[in-house]
Design goal:
The structure holds two protein chains of two kinds. Helices cover 0% and strands 56% of the residues of chain A. By secondary structure, chain A is mostly beta strands. Chain A is globular. The relative contact order of chain A is 0.33. Chain B has no helices and twelve strands. Classes of the chains: A mainly beta, B mainly beta. The A-B interface holds A 2, 31, 40-43, 45, 48, 50, 55-56, 88, 90, 92, 97-98, 100-108, 110 and B 33, 35, 37, 42-47, 50, 52, 91, 95, 97-100, 102-105.
């Protein structure tokens, strides 16, 4: 089973709202990732968690707050977002952070900030 | 400098034509990994293939084939007898340790 699930599929939020994106994998992977993808662009790495610890933060604004409650779950808490934050947010997982293995991606959450 | 270059922004072909998507990468590492992903309009990135830097054998999987040439730092992807369902954006990616570098993607349109 190579499935990564993400909820919700679509999210519309105002600039003063607080919301969370959720990601789950049951492949026993120890590395999980958040990417942001704007239209017609490749995914941009935001955060990497390795063994439930934050390993990489690609200078992401603090209005995005990641959380890894356990090895299967990854959350992205959103607060006071800007309209330019509207994008497809993709979660991915891989066997390990420094391993050669591929990342498996979820279907993404399409976020619209109004 | 861009680590992965996909010079073809968009390609349109008619069904049953063969099509090759180009990928050129740049790295100083001796150990690295190359990938191809497919992103249909639904948005999910689908893993297609991984190739490590020590394995230059070409690979064929059904209608898909990949040509890895270290001498030219290229990892090209060919779809034989294309089908409408192949329409998608295809990304080439390079992995160095814990980071993935994606190319800008090639949008493939296969017309009936």
């Amino acid at each position: 089973d190579t499935e990564v699930t993400q909820t919700p599929k679509h999210l519309v939020m105002g600039m003063t709202n607080k919301k969370s994106l959720k990601c789950e994998q049951h492949m026993g992977h120890r590395a999980m990732y958040w990417y942001k993808q704007k239209a017609k662009k490749p995914p941009e790495l935001m955060f990497v968690y390795s063994y439930e610890k934050l390993s990489i933060n690609e200078s992401v604004p603090s209005r995005f707050s990641p959380e890894c409650p356990n090895s299967s779950l990854l959350n992205l808490h959103l607060h006071a977002l800007q309209p330019e934050d509207s994008a497809l947010y993709l979660c991915a997982s891989s066997q390990g952070e420094g391993t050669p293995y591929e990342q498996y991606f979820g279907p993404g959450t399409r976020l619209t900030v109004t | 400098a861009q680590k992965v270059t996909q010079a073809q922004t968009e390609i349109s072909v008619v069904e049953k034509e063969d099509v090759t998507l180009d990928c050129v990468y740049e790295t100083r590492d001796t150990t690295y990994y190359l990938f191809w992903y497919k992103q249909p309009p639904s948005g999910e990135l689908v893993f297609l293939i991984r190739r490590n830097s020590f394995d230059e054998q070409n690979e064929i999987s059904g209608r898909y084939s990949w040509n890895f040439q270290k001498s030219t730092s290229s990892f090209n992807f060919t779809i034989t007898a294309s089908q409408v369902v192949d329409s998608a954006v295809y990304f080439c990616a390079l992995r160095e340790f814990n980071k993935f570098y994606f190319g800008s993607g090639t949008k493939l349109n296969v017309k009936p």
